[in-house]
Design a protein that fits this description.
about 625 residues; 35 strands; alpha/beta; nine-stranded mixed beta sheet; six-stranded mixed beta sheet; elongated
């Protein structure tokens, strides 16, 4: 038992007053002689004992009454838990990821949980509530009702480790008892073990379970082939249940239905194809009809204008291998001899290849350095006898007449993304007969058998450490030369993808040039935003996706002029619908808002006892009156 006003307990010292009165009564009795009292002696004795009992009972009643009055003013109470009397700080995580769109007994899980919280949380309770994309700090239900009801599903899905760390960062009061409440369907999309509770933070879990978890999803789409105006798209579909009937897919371009197809899923997955013919860039939407989660029922795609990658090779040696590599339609390739360079061409190129030039004049190196500073790419293949390379970043050139084998491939480097199905160990590696520079680069791409670099990258420049002519190396005849040089050019001007993922920081090259006072903007319906962007001579590098929340086709504009279209779609990890079991989640697990709030209210409940002590004081005062009146 605890007291709100413990200092009043000093009032119990007043108990000494009735005790003193009882023990030191000042009345004196005088003896009076009287005849014939022999027969009265037993009666007198009996009366004195009765009076003594009456006095003791009266004393006890008065002491009890005073004690009850003092206790009532001290306001005693019984706490519902050890932390009931502490200051408490509460963080509530309300999951609004796409999987919370599934329906439970009373409708969509997220919408129902939101309305239940706003209805049943105590009006005076102060808490911090956060979702996957918003935070409402130190608020109450009245302050956040409108905003929380209008909040929608988020493409961002925090892991539960991230949820706990975020909750911990919001609980900053060191003197308060910390409590976090996690309201979610607890989807296990990563396959990892559910995290343990944080130290000194009480954790309560509310698991919301959908009634139906059958879901059909459009997972991916890519260009299988393209010839002229004919475009063939391939789609990947999946389901988490056995689909008996063929699935119908529709393909719209600029809100006009272009094609329909159907596919029968085998082993809960399947592929479908669309073949379309169009002279204009595509702004498409591919969709299916499904009663599961809605976000993965459609996929937005756009092709944009097809731009050629501008490649310039400046040659002091044979360039036939480069001519063969860049003869494709996707390249605008120019090959010039080192003595015939037009410097005005350089600034408009996406990538410039220095192919074994014997000397690099200062004026040329200045143009090349300007190109790389402005986002252009450069490939440096040094000549055995050369000068001026130090001005473009390749120093320490000295011919060493000994052979080396190229034996190490950095499979994780972007140049080899998608090139190898697996990491090979029995590859027929090329070799060189002489090395110009020995270095251990920070970003190696290909290495010699002694660990030094054959090819490495520094910012936007690729450096070879030896010449590639047939007398010095057989690298031209190696299968590696095709992905290396092809991807160097492709990465110099990232070709816009069919779509990008929301919640990711996507670097997108928009093929346009900006005046000094112009900027690019992204618009969708009536909303418009300005993404991060960096203007170069031949393109603008846009970073977008992380701040976007709605899937769709976004128009890229300069002022009101349309430049191109970019498509963004939500990540597909939310469609797995695999959940943590109750055993995985452990203790402190509730199944409804009512159960959770009742449990918390019981722990925070305080039973006040002062009214019982007031009743006790009245009872003992009445007892005293009855004793004085009826006890003889």
């Amino acid at each position: 038992m605890l007291f709100k006003n413990p200092i009043i307990l000093y009032g119990l010292f007043f108990l000494i007053v009735p005790i003193i009165v009882h023990l030191f009564q000042l009345r004196k009795f005088n003896k009076v002689s009287f005849t014939n009292v022999a027969f009265l002696q037993p009666l007198i004795t009996q009366t004195r004992k009765s009076r003594q009992l009456k006095k003791w009972l009266t004393l006890l009643a008065r002491c009890a009454a005073i004690t009850c009055i003092v206790m009532a003013f001290a306001q005693p109470f019984l706490p519902g838990s050890k932390t009931a009397t502490q200051e408490k700080q509460t963080a509530i995580y309300l999951d609004n990821s796409y999987s919370m769109e599934l329906k439970g007994k009373n409708g969509a899980l997220y919408k129902n949980a939101t309305s239940q919280l706003l209805e049943k949380l105590p009006a005076d309770k102060v808490f911090t509530l956060f979702t996957n994309d918003k935070v409402f700090a130190n608020t109450n239900r009245q302050q956040i009702t409108n905003e929380l009801l209008s909040n929608n599903y988020s493409n961002q899905a925090l892991t539960f480790d991230q949820v706990q760390l975020k909750a911990s960062s919001l609980l900053q009061n060191k003197n308060a008892a910390k409590e976090m409440i996690l309201i979610s369907d607890f989807q296990n999309s990563t396959g990892e073990q559910f995290p343990e509770p944080l130290q000194n933070v009480k954790r309560e879990l509310l698991k919301l379970e959908p009634q139906e978890i059958n879901n059909l999803s459009i997972d991916t789409v890519f260009i299988e082939s393209q010839s002229g105006n004919n475009l063939k798209l391939q789609l990947g579909l999946s389901a988490n249940y056995k689909v008996e009937q063929p699935v119908t897919l529709s393909f719209e371009n600029n809100n006009i239905l272009l094609a329909k197809t159907s596919v029968l899923l085998e082993n809960q997955s399947g592929t479908a194809n669309f073949e379309v013919k169009t002279n204009e860039p595509i702004e498409g939407r591919i969709y299916i009809n499904d009663n599961g989660i809605s976000f993965d029922n459609e996929l937005f795609i756009s092709t944009g204008r097809k731009e050629k990658i501008k490649v310039l090779s400046i040659n002091g040696a044979d360039s036939s291998f480069l001519d063969r590599l860049y003869k494709g339609e996707e390249f605008e390739y120019i090959s010039v001899a080192e003595m015939e360079v037009n410097y005005n061409l350089i600034k408009n190129q996406n990538i410039v290849i220095i192919n074994e030039m014997s000397a690099i004049p200062a004026s040329l190196s200045e143009e090349l350095n300007t190109l790389t500073r402005n986002g252009g790419y450069m490939v440096v293949i040094p000549a055995q006898k050369s000068s001026g390379y130090q001005n473009i970043g390749l120093t320490g050139l000295e011919y060493n007449d000994f052979s080396k084998k190229i034996t190490e491939i950095n499979f994780n480097h972007p140049l080899f993304k998608g090139v190898f199905n697996k990491q090979v160990s029995n590859f027929q590696y090329p070799n060189v007969t002489g090395v110009l520079k020995t270095t251990n680069a920070i970003d190696p791409i290909l290495k010699y058998d002694d660990g030094s670099s054959f090819l490495y990258k520094n910012n936007t420049t690729y450096f070879f450490t030896t010449s590639l002519n047939l007398e010095n190396s057989n690298f031209q005849n190696s299968p590696l030369i095709v992905p290396v040089f092809y991807n160097m050019a492709v990465n110099a001007l990232p070709i816009p993808k069919l779509y990008y993922e929301l919640g990711e920081s996507n670097n997108i090259a928009v093929n346009t040039s900006l005046n000094q006072d112009h900027i690019l903007s992204l618009s969708y319906d009536s909303s418009e935003m300005i993404p991060r962007q960096q203007a170069f001579d031949s393109y603008v590098l846009v970073t977008a996706g992380e701040e976007l929340s709605i899937a769709g086709n976004y128009t890229v504009k300069i002022k009101e002029q349309k430049i191109s279209t970019l498509s963004f779609n939500a990540k597909r990890q939310e469609n797995k619908l695999a959940y943590y079991s109750n055993a995985d989640l452990g203790d402190n697990l509730s199944e409804s808002i009512d159960d959770l709030l009742y449990k918390l209210s019981q722990e925070e409940n305080i039973l006040s006892l002062w009214k019982y002590f007031v009743m006790g004081a009245l009872f003992f005062l009445i007892c005293e009156l009855l004793i004085l009146k009826f006890v003889k």
